[in-house]
Design a protein that fits this description.
This protein is mainly alpha-helical. It contains 4 helices and 2 strands; from the N terminus they run H-H-E-E-H-H.
Length: 135
Amino acid sequence: GRGLLSLPDPRCTPGAISPAVTQANIGATICSHGYTKTVRPPESVTEPEKEASLAAYGDSGPLHDYEYDHLVPLELGGAPNDPRNLWPEPGRTPNPKDELENRLREMVCAGNLSVATAQREIAGDWVATYHRFVG
């Protein structure tokens, strides 16, 4: 798909989670302020990957038109640098998916949703999940 509500190709980007994040340790990981800074790969690593990902998706658009995004976000325990969890998301940040990521993290950290359920929902169809939880 194209535009801000695009889904990644599930064959290329099915999503992947970090084994370091579990329901038992969310207080020390995803619910801890600054967690994502400790696991986010540097741009020097992700920028060449972004180019390769665009090519794999058959897109030749300019890099600045895409965010190299984690399907299962780091905020929900997504795998930081697993190619199965990264895709060239059309548009820049912030975008609708970012709003969903924040909402789901709030719900997980408040105990209203398990981290596994949030991961499954966003990896399965983030657009449908956006419409259910954000509007």
